[in-house]
Structure formats: C-alpha cells, structure tokens
Structures
1.
Amino acid sequence: MSNAPERKEFASTGQLRQVMGQYFSDLAKGPEQGKKTAWCTSVGPVELLRAMDFNVYFPENHSAMLGAAKMAADLIPLANAQGFSPDICSYLTSDIGSYLKGVTPLQKMGMTGPPKPDVLVFNTNQCRDVKDWFQWYARQMDVPCVGIHTPRSIGSIDGTLVANIAEQTEALIEPLEQVAGAKFDIDRLRETVRLSKQLTVLWKQVLETAANRPSPLTFFDSTIHMGPAVVLRGDAAALPYYETLLAELQQRVADGVAAIEGERMRIYWDGMPFWGKLRDMSAQFLQMRACVVASTYCNSWIFEDLDPAEPFLSMARACSNIFICRSDDRKEDYIARMVEQFQVDGILYHDSKTCPNNSNNRYGMPQRLRDRLGVPFLIINGDQNDLRLFSEEQTRTNLQAFAEQLVEV
Ligand code: SF4
C-alpha cells in the first residue's frame, strides 16, 4: 500500500550501535586482557559473574543474531545430526550449528567467533533447553558447567523458594572462584546489583512510554533497543544510552509524535519475536497502522526485585519472578494488567514450534483472557529462528483479517 506511514527512526540509534559495538569489542579483547570468560543464560546470575570480573557472553543473544541474519535454517541441520531433535529449541540448534560450521554474524564485526568459555553458567528458570545446550559445549570444550535449577510454573514466590534459589546462587561462588582465580567480594556484588537495578528501571520506563496514546514506540523498535538491557546488566555502560532513549521518547510523547502515524489499533504481543521476519512484519503493522504497544518478550528483562541491600535474595526473587516460569493464572493476571495499562485492543500469540516454553496459547489461555477481558486474539504459528516453520502468506492474511476485525469492534 502506497499510503503506509514511514517507519520513524530514533536519533539515539547511533548511541545504541556504539554501546553494542563496544560490548562486542570488549568481549573479544577480554581474554587478551587476562579476563576469564563466562557464558551465561539470558536470565542467569550475570550480576555475580560481573562482580567476579568475568567477560560475560550470552549465547541466546548470538542465536537471535543468527535468526535475524537468516542463517539459522542452514545451521540447524548440523545440530540435528548431533542428535538434537528438529522439535527442540531453534536457538540451541542454530547456535550449535554455527559452532560446528564455524560461521557467525560476529565475523562481520571483526571477531572470529564467540570467545571460548572458561565456565558456562545457566539458570533453568526459562527452560531445560539452556542446560542441555550449555552441557553440550561443556563436553565439547572440557570446561565446567554450573547452574541454578529454578522450578517452572511458579504460583506464589514464597520465602522457601527464594531461600532455595539464593542458596543455589551462593553455591556457585566456590566453583567460580576456582575458575576466576580470585576471591568473591560482596561489595562488588552489591554494586553490580545496584547497576543492574538502575538499568532495569530505565528499560521499564522506556517500555512504559508506549502506554501513551499514540504510542511513541513499537515492539519492533523495542526488540532492537533491548540489546543492552540483555547483555549489559550489572554494567554502567548502557545507562547513558537508555537515558537518551527515554528522553527522546518523552519528547515524542510531549509533541504527540506517534511511532505509527494514524495509530488505529493497539496490540499486545505474547511469545517470541520472528527474528528473521522483523522488518517485514514491522512493515505490515505500519501498513495496518497497528501498533504493538507491549510484549511479554521485551518485558522479560525488567527485574524490579533487585536490591543491593540483599543481593542474593533479591537476585533469587527477580529471576524467579520472570513471566516464563510463572503459573498460567499468574501469567493471565499479568497480561490482564498489561491490557489495561497499555489500552490494548487485541492480543497476538506467537505459537513457536520449537519454544513451547514461551508459547502461551496451548492450554486455553487466549480463550480465558478473551472471556475475562472481552479482548479478541489471534494465534500465529511460526518459530523464533527456523523460517521453514513459518508461512509468510498465511500469517500476512491472518494478520490482515485480525486488523479488520479489531477496527470493526
Ligand atoms: S526459552 Fe525458548 S527460545 Fe529461549 S532457550 Fe528456552 S526453548 Fe530456546
């Protein structure tokens, strides 16, 4: 359609590139500077690793890059040949495929590949796949793999659960000290938790600007701008960037500038992004003048429970309170709050073939929320990385029909 509004870029995008570029450059230089490298899951105990001066790398971030670069479908079969089913996490299979083939988007950034790990650290709060994934590398490279086992489908986060997770986190200190060859310092941990909290508060404020009507921000913007909130928790480097982005968004709100001019409908996105199709989907939402104002995914890096006064307990609380490991009734209450806060007209569920952990449509939740809130929903099938599991035409048609339904409501 020729009358589609233009996508609005952010002036702060240059600063975002700088921050991410610096992160990857530091990551590459870390081992030369004598730093030990820890690979960490996206909601793993990164504050502890930073406090112990590890060079911290996140394989899931790398997997998302493989998805966005449309490299995943060629790499997944290599992991399948190692015995990893095509039905399990395509982040895992594309990342392992990338390792086996020796190709990575990091090469475009002047790196030969991810820095070799000295230790791998997981938290199963998001899924079991991360542990299997890290253990494979541990066997390949003969390095230790340690982690935290968080239960799934958590109802109330009580003292017993928090104490258990905090204890498991403290138990990591000794093996990590052995790898780092340095002593743990509680004051450094307090400082990284403080920085992490500052980052998370800024990221939350950024996302909350989308509650304004019209929204100055879409989900498609946020999936790009969230990079530092994922990889630089516990580090001061990303704070000035989020201050700039927040100020830019607040200015947009004050000036009535919409991310999508003529915003006609507001949508909540549940589930994973389609990394290889972000640009195309963003264009279709622009055409439909539909703004995705909030998402489970981007909100997953908000850790309000962090508190430097009680670092272990608060890290335990924060990492057990993420959407993905909560029970369905808690998830429903959460989405209901989001629908109200962001004035949502419709909910879109991505049913990801290889990530059941982040697909919330399979046990009746869309229907229950529709009945409770009177908000229509659409389920789209696909995958975060494996584009062979995504039908572009069908999705396009379904989205169009959903948009028409929302306009009529
Ligand atoms: S949450 Fe989903 S996408 Fe992420 S690592 Fe687990 S299975 Fe993979």
Note: The CA atoms of residues 146 and 172 lie 7 Å apart.
2.
Amino acid sequence: MSGTQEQTTPNRQGVPVPQLLRTDTAAVDSGSARRLATDGYLPLPGLLTADGLTLLRQEAAALEALAGRRDFAMACMDDSPRHMTTLGGQIIAETSQTIPALYQDPHLVALLGQAAGEPVTGITDPVERHVLNILHQAGDTHGAHTDDQPYALVLFLEAPADPADGGLLHFLPHAGSLRDLDTAHGARTVHHRPGDAYLLRSDTTAHRVTPLMRPGLRRTVLNFAYTTPTARPHPTGSATELYT
Ligand SMILES: [Fe+2]
C-alpha cells in the first residue's frame, strides 16, 4: 500500500489518520535533534488534536477490557516495580485499526525523523511496536528501565491534572545505570496533560513513571517504539515480560 493511500484511509470512526495529530507542531524545529540528544527527551505538547484525543480514548477504553494486570519486580531492570495494566501490540493490532495506522503514518514517522535528526522506522516486533500502559490504582507505577529500542513516542490519553498526584515521567539521559536515576545530578521530573506527547531517546535514558498518589487517578498512554537503520538491537526480554 502506498503512503498516499494510507494517509487518506479513514478509520472505523471516519477520521483520517493525519487529522489525529498536529504534525505541523512548532515543538519540532531545527534545534530539536540537538535538544533530544542532550536531554534524552523532547516534549511535544498538544500533539493530539481534539478529534485524535477523543478517538484514541475510545480505542483505549475498548482495549482496556483485553488488558492484563501486572504486579511484579522486573529482574532484568534491577528488580524495579511494575504495578500497572498493559496490553501488547499483537492484541492491539487484532483489535484496533486506528492505532496501527497511526503508528506507521508517514506524516508521523517524518515528524519523528525530523525531531531525532536521523531517519526513524517502525519496528517489526508485533508485541513491542505499539503498547497500551494504564496506571489506575493508588501506588501504580512503571518502574525504572531503559527500552530495547532507541526511540519511544508516548501519547497521553489520560493523566492526573495535578503534578502532586504523581504519574510523572522521571528520567536521566545518558544514564550509566538505573540506580543513577535516584542519585545522579541531571535527573528531571515532568508533567504532561491529555493530548500531550513526548519523544524519548529511550535506550540510553533511564526512565520511570512515578507512583499514583491516591485512589481515583488514571494515567493512560500509548507507547510507540521506533528504531533507526543503524541501531544495534539489544533485547532484554522486558517487553515479553510486560506485554505477553
Ligand atoms: Fe520505557
């Protein structure tokens, strides 16, 4: 299928994929690649359109019925905690047309390449390529880790309005170890709103999601994994543990 056909194909709700995102966002400019390389993190505020946020929330709500609860310590990531509900890409692809189409949308992939300063491509692993992460109980957290793939685009569908309620991204670029996230100078904690997104240099940036601080809060994101033509894979098995 050509890119042009993909761009104009409506999803089940009749909204063309390009209208789900603001790919002309001012957040990506000639300095983005340098900032991403330095900070490990590039905020993309308001990347989702109002239609995009509404539609992806509907998709996520339907998918949540298929998602599984995960409560364990991940051995390959220094026993960091996982208290969350997840759904892997292989189930999402069987159920959603919109999310796989958005993942490979040429406008989005081009935007990410511009932001990264190098070509990015989708990955072939059906489990890891696009996943759903839901924190919905007090204490829920996605503990410290690095990703197997070099780039992660995270799209916020739900998030606590108040940073004091947790669910924040805590990250350290160019981390020597996951322990450095708590001790090293340079770690940052950032808050996002529904409709926001960020691009992370996710294989070298240690990162986690801080715990939800009380009942009644929800944080729902889609995580899209991308690679580059020159990236060397370093699979850890973490995606298999969390999403299968
Ligand atoms: Fe991650």
Note: Residues 145, 147, 152, 202, 207 surround fe (ii) ion (CB under 6 Å).
